[in-house]
Design brief:
Layout: H1 6-14, H2 40-50, H3 62-72
Amino acid sequence: MPLEFRGVVDEMLQTPNRPSGATPPPIRLSQNEMPWTPSAPIVAAMSAAVGAAHRYPDYHRAAARAAIAGVLGVDPDRVAVDNG
């Protein structure tokens, strides 16, 4: 039984690559880039976070749980936050 996407794969394999020396597109949306530089508050927050970048984050995620609980109007013990 042939796979339904096989035609798509064959078409992708036949797509030519960009020629050598070609200028890449100015905005590569597929790489999650933005055309604007970050704002001053974002740069300040990133600079402040660099000092703790070598540390593991709060295992219990207390600040995140408290913030979410505050928005929802529930006790932080009723909020679960995890990776993914």
